[in-house]
Amino acid sequence: MRILVVEDSQVVSRVMRHLLTQELNCEVDVAPDMHSAKALLAENQYFVAITDLNLPDAQEGEIVKFVLAKQIPCIVLTGSWDAEQRARLLQLGIVDYVFKENRFSYEYTAKLVKRLCRNQSVKVLVADDSVVSRKFIRSLLEQHLFQVIEADDGVSALETLSENPDIKLLITDYNMPRLDGFGLIIKVREQLSREELAIIGLSSDSDESLSARFIKNGANDFLQKPFVHEEFHCRVLTTLDALDMVTRLWEQANLDYLTNVFNRRYFFNMYEEKLNTIAQKKGSLALALLDIDYFKKVNDTYGHDVGDEVLIEFSSRLQQSFSQHFTVARIGGEEFVVGFKGLNVEKAYVLLDSFRMQLEATPIATSKGLLNITVSTGVTEFTLDENVDALLNRADIGLYEAKANGRNLVCIAQD
């Protein structure tokens, strides 16, 4: 990713270069004037341009129009606050207008660029029966590089959410036919928590209680129409930052720090709940315990860094083979567990033995060269009135049998 900073102050350009490379590890080009900026823009593709308004050879903000004409998102830095100028620039479609006041201003700009980078993969649903209002909100969101989907009422919004489970933000108007904003939020919150989907309510009504009612019904925030560009962007970004923070906290609590698969805690909590449902519905569940063969020898011979590389690649292959339909977790050291909900032990055995053969046939690339790795596996099947510990203990018996019979085997542990 490449970023252009157009700034005649060497101090400011050095600060911006440092903060941007620190935040994004990207390439940063600096132009001290408009002539230099044009030359760089002719030779390179830029993700975003951060431009000063007052340049030695362009003192009326000409650089902004030039950058926007190239379809490059533009963040404006300025040393003077001018309300008319600010309104004019926002109408042009810039990303933001930042007053060069202190170091926080530059930190804000760097974090904004990082947010723009993340926004490219964020889907936002806008629900509003007014075409004009939808298109206006869409244009604001697209300035910040979001993927935008539209719905003309609450019923259409529910259908769109069902078809696009990766939507992260819903922006909904209050007054809509068929299903209004309140009804939409209530139905959405029956399926999705605040941690899974953020919601911002909108309304042009003068009722002072609307904001509280929206939030009490499950919205994360509320905006009164009409709103200014900057308030809209700040509310959206703050809401998504909070969603990201909750996601990071969830990942820290539930994902293994090294391999990024689920950890022991998550697996036990998840399957203690699943076992009750499976028992009630008389469903099937096979559970497998996998142990990398002679892993201690890998650590002793090549070092723990190479051991970590093996664990990371092994878990990646497990995920590629099983995580789309089943649950993969690391429960400690070189031991992993896979829960095969909906499969009996015979079907799970076939999948596990195929994985075992693929692993044996494909060495793992490490910093010390290719290593031939094999795995021993014990697999068992859930029976009524037992918990996760009992299942794991039985799978461990199968694992012990696989090791006792020469390793690189899958063994079924019976009741």
From TrEMBL:
<dbReference type="InterPro" id="IPR050469">
    <property type="entry name" value="Diguanylate_Cyclase"/>
</dbReference>
<dbReference type="InterPro" id="IPR043128">
    <property type="entry name" value="Rev_trsase/Diguanyl_cyclase"/>
</dbReference>
<feature type="domain" description="Response regulatory">
    <location>
        <begin position="2"/>
        <end position="115"/>
    </location>
</feature>
<dbReference type="Pfam" id="PF00990">
    <property type="entry name" value="GGDEF"/>
</dbReference>
<feature type="modified residue" description="4-aspartylphosphate">
    <location>
        <position position="173"/>
    </location>
</feature>
<keyword id="KW-0808">Transferase</keyword>
<keyword id="KW-0597">Phosphoprotein</keyword>
<dbReference type="InterPro" id="IPR000160">
    <property type="entry name" value="GGDEF_dom"/>
</dbReference>
<dbReference type="InterPro" id="IPR001789">
    <property type="entry name" value="Sig_transdc_resp-reg_receiver"/>
</dbReference>
<feature type="domain" description="GGDEF">
    <location>
        <begin position="283"/>
        <end position="415"/>
    </location>
</feature>
<dbReference type="GO" id="GO:1902201">
    <property type="term" value="P:negative regulation of bacterial-type flagellum-dependent cell motility"/>
</dbReference>
<dbReference type="Pfam" id="PF00072">
    <property type="entry name" value="Response_reg"/>
</dbReference>
<keyword id="KW-0548">Nucleotidyltransferase</keyword>
<dbReference type="InterPro" id="IPR029787">
    <property type="entry name" value="Nucleotide_cyclase"/>
</dbReference>
<protein>
    <recommendedName>
        <fullName>diguanylate cyclase</fullName>
        <ecNumber>2.7.7.65</ecNumber>
    </recommendedName>
</protein>
<feature type="modified residue" description="4-aspartylphosphate">
    <location>
        <position position="52"/>
    </location>
</feature>
<dbReference type="GO" id="GO:0043709">
    <property type="term" value="P:cell adhesion involved in single-species biofilm formation"/>
</dbReference>
<dbReference type="GO" id="GO:0005886">
    <property type="term" value="C:plasma membrane"/>
</dbReference>
<dbReference type="GO" id="GO:0000160">
    <property type="term" value="P:phosphorelay signal transduction system"/>
</dbReference>
<dbReference type="InterPro" id="IPR011006">
    <property type="entry name" value="CheY-like_superfamily"/>
</dbReference>
<dbReference type="GO" id="GO:0052621">
    <property type="term" value="F:diguanylate cyclase activity"/>
</dbReference>
<feature type="domain" description="Response regulatory">
    <location>
        <begin position="123"/>
        <end position="240"/>
    </location>
</feature>
